[in-house]
Amino acid sequence: MLSAADFDPETLARVAAELATEVGRRIREMRDVGVGVAATKASRSDVVTDADRRAEQLIAERLEQVRPQDGILGEEGASSESSSGITWVVDPIDGTVNYLYGLPGYAVSIAATVSSGAEARGSAPPAGTTSDGRRAIAGAVYVPVTDELYVAHEGGGATLNGEPIRVSTETELELALVATGFGYTTERRTEQAQVVRQLIPRVRDVRRMGAASVDLCSVASGRLDAYYERGLHPWDYAAGALIAREAGAAILALGDDELPGESMLIVGPPKLAASLRDAVRDAYAGLA
Known about the structure:
This protein has 288 residues and is α+β, with helices and mostly antiparallel strands. The protein is 36% helix and 24% strand.
């Protein structure tokens, strides 16, 4: 029998935090020993390491021990149905290419999500629902190299190593430091490069660091002013977007009637995020 505590976002956030930290420390140990490519995905540059697979297996095993009625959706294929209503969306190593090359910008991302079911009821999706129909209610992102743990649960704010964090106070697009990311196919990268070319004269500068979860947490902590990217999957943003939202960020799609997610995710302080959306719209319109 499930109890109220089984659905408590704060409890779920603790599970995510403990697991992300454990797995993050394990993958850093594996990286110190050495790492190699196990497979490729969308293209030859889109890699999977043995550590990705081992880390996801460890996450799945731990969740089976502590939350056996929950489901899991993992980047590397871990999948199980939920009988509790909670599904854990997991990226065992977000920023695998950084990990492969020994760059510090990689993280473990773990989020507890619920399905809104709003579409079936004919009502508007609850705040925080993304285009895959999920809403993250608790999550953690752990960056092993810097030993930084970002945690949030719905309605509880966001923290970095236990201290509250907030998004930046920047409101002007021309003064904003904006991050983005690129896909792995030639067609998607070409499109995204053309968008950056049009956007960069309108902002302070653009960063591309290679891990969506880290970018989202950097917005949450005010290290970046805003972030946008097309082509993300739920495991890329589930935890990070919740952390940013709980730190005061708006999470937007490109279209007014769309839900944020794979087609576009735009994140930042509300006024700035709206301005960035307009600029990104203009840039995509310029491709036509």
